[in-house]
Amino acid sequence: GKDLTLIAFSRAVELALDAAKALASKGVDAEVINLRSLRPLDMDAITKSVKKTNHLVTVEQGWPHCGIGAEISASIMESETFYHLDAPVVRVTGVDTPLPYVKSLEQLALPSAQDIVNTVEKILSKKSEGVAKV
Question: Which among 8, 64, 69, 78 could disulfide-bond with 12, CB atoms 3.0 to 4.6 Å apart, if both were Cys?
Fold first, then answer.
């Protein structure tokens, strides 16, 4: 991908791939990194991709706090890779609440491919406006 890096693991990889297909139909070339291991974390692959795309979105089904997305964000911000970003690192996660048992509520609590697409469009629209806020 040349426009954006999507990083995901486990079931979120499927969401990221679906989002990448939807984005491709809109002319956005997203690179999806499937984290096969969280420890050790393949920061070399992540860094290489971010330096190429200049945008990073992490995707996970867990809560927004204390997740792998937060750790990846911190690692990027603490390295020289930070200076390659054209926008802040953004996390697409589940909502910050206990996971509901009822299927309809569960679907509202977990991220979807459309959530990822909406996030990416927001990031890239800010870039085209010359604003790096998300």
Answer: 8
Please report which confidence band the pLDDT of residue 129 belongs to, taking 50, 70 and 90 as the band edges: low
Q: Single out the residue of 31, 22, 67 nearest to residue 51, CA to CA.
A: 31
Across 4-24, average pLDDT: 98
In whole angstroms, what is the distance from residue 73 CA to residue 115 CA? 19
Q: Which amino acid is at 77?
A: M
6: Cα separation from own chain's centroid:
4
Q: Cα(69)–Cα(53) distance, rounded to whole angstroms?
A: 17
- Return the bridge partners of 56, or none: 5
Largest alpha-carbon pair distance within the chain?
44
Mean pLDDT of the chain: 94
Query: What pTM did the predictor assign?
Result: 0.91
Q: Which CATH architecture has domain 4-128?
A: 3-Layer(aba) Sandwich (3.40)
The DSSP code sequence of 31-98 is EEEE-S-SSS--HHHHHHHHHHHS-EEEE-SS-SSSSHHHHHHHHHHTSGGGGG-SS--EEE---SSP
